[in-house]
């Protein structure tokens, strides 16, 4: 059963991140601390409503492209949880630019996507690593998302093997890079009690997926939580689909 005690989610003000918050609170044994982060908490109206209904939610300002925000967020989590550490980090915040084809590419837009989709999540992970290691040291049990885990929300669009249509020259390479970060973190942490996985949530009706996508956020996150409930060392270091199958890099 999925029941991490301390959870940290980036990009939690809308879309998949907001739905992660909703569904974690509905678990049979919800987290004691659910850190929901976003760039502008004042404008995160739906998240603020959830916070009023459940004080286990802690809303934190976090722009993943700001080291100042990253450091401040890590301090807030440590002040709140202390020696308990952090059980589950979900690097969900991401972005894309539309109309990414040769002839319409812009350096700033490409760099923006890499900063948000790769560098930001990696630096968030770095800042929270002491808390993840602390949590991992407390549990004498098999590795799981209840113990200590890093889950990077990626995409099948970052798979080189599955690229049959080209295009998306900022988003695809940035997600491919996130997949490599996932694999590297796995190799570095596999003997320290921390699982690491990249997770493709399916084609979802969000700001990135668009209105024609096949899954609602509710359906996608229900699937994703099922995958996380079963995550083990066997599939750590892999890119997984929302049904738990491995996707080729």
Which terms summarize this structure?
249 residues, alpha/beta, 8-stranded mixed beta sheet
Question: Percent of residues in helical segments?
Answer: 40-55%
N- to C-terminal separation? 29 Å
Number of strands: 8
Largest sheet: 8 strands, mixed
Q: Which runs of at least 5 residues are low in confidence (pLDDT < 50)?
A: none
What is the general shape?
A: globular
Order of helices and strands: EHEHEHEHEHEHEE
Radius of gyration equals 17 Å
Mean pLDDT: 97
Strand fraction equals 5-15%
How would you describe this structure to a colleague?
This protein has 249 residues and is an alpha/beta fold. It has helices at residues 15-25, 45-53, 67-81, 107-138, 171-189, 217-230, and strands spanning 6-9, 33-38, 57-61, 88-91, 149-153, 195-199, 239-240, 246-247. It contains six helices and eight strands, in the order βαβαβαβαβαβαββ. The protein is globular, with a radius of gyration of 17 Å.
Briefly, what is this?
With 249 residues, this protein is an alpha/beta fold. The protein has six helices and eight strands.
Please render the helix and strand layout as text.
Layout (H helix, E strand, L loop, with lengths): L5 E4 L5 H11 L7 E6 L6 H9 L3 E5 L5 H15 L6 E4 L15 H32 L10 E5 L17 H19 L5 E5 L17 H14 L8 E2 L5 E2 L2
Parallel strand pairs: 1-2, 1-4, 2-3, 4-5, 5-6, 6-7
Antiparallel strand pairs: 7-8
Keywords: NADP, Oxidoreductase
GO cellular component, one term: cytoplasm
Protein name: C-factor
